[in-house]
Amino acid sequence: PMRTARSVFAACALNGRVFVMGGWNNEDNYLSSVERYDPVTDTWIEVASMSTRRGGVSGAVLGGCIYVCGGADSNETTLASVEKYDLERNKWVEVSSMFEAREGHSVVACGSHLYSMGGWGPGYTLSSVERYDVVRDVWETKSSMRSSRAYMGAY
Question: 61: buried, middle or exposed (CB in 10 Å: 19+, 13-18, 0-12)?
Fold first, then answer.
């Protein structure tokens, strides 16, 4: 089984393995830990932790890297920060932050960009959409959704 009980975490598949990042555990703690599941060996192992504890976090894979965006930290502050996981080096690095802090949002990779949409801002639900350019390491605002939403899926 997974080593750490957690909810409101991000999960992504990369190179035939499933990565589970951050979340919240049963002891009222936000987590920075990351676990990797190998379906061939049916085993979980811990890999490098993110630099920030994050619950209500979202993530996606682009260009062979995992990107984890936003969430809320141990102080229950909604985050705009973004981290990138380099599989070869087993290391997380911070990249440019989103314009808006958000948790319970969706992040999806499309083409050569990441899109972050909706979620909870500090005290309100968001309809905004942002696009990240991995080559230039910049976010830009895109057309908003017609209505605000949180905890929705994007594939």
Answer: middle
Residues in the chain: 155
> pLDDT tens digits, residue range 45-79?
999 999 999 999 999 999 999 999 999 998 989 99
Cβ atoms of residues 7 and 23 within 8 Å: yes
Q: Residues of 104-135 as b/e, b for ≥16 C-beta within 10 angstroms?
A: bbbbebeeebbbbbbbbbeeebbebbbbbebe
**Token couple for 75:** 């102080």
Name the 3-class secondary structure at 71: coil
Pairing assessment for the beta strands 65-69 and 138-142 based on DSSP bridges: unpaired
**pTM for the predicted model, two decimal places:** 0.95
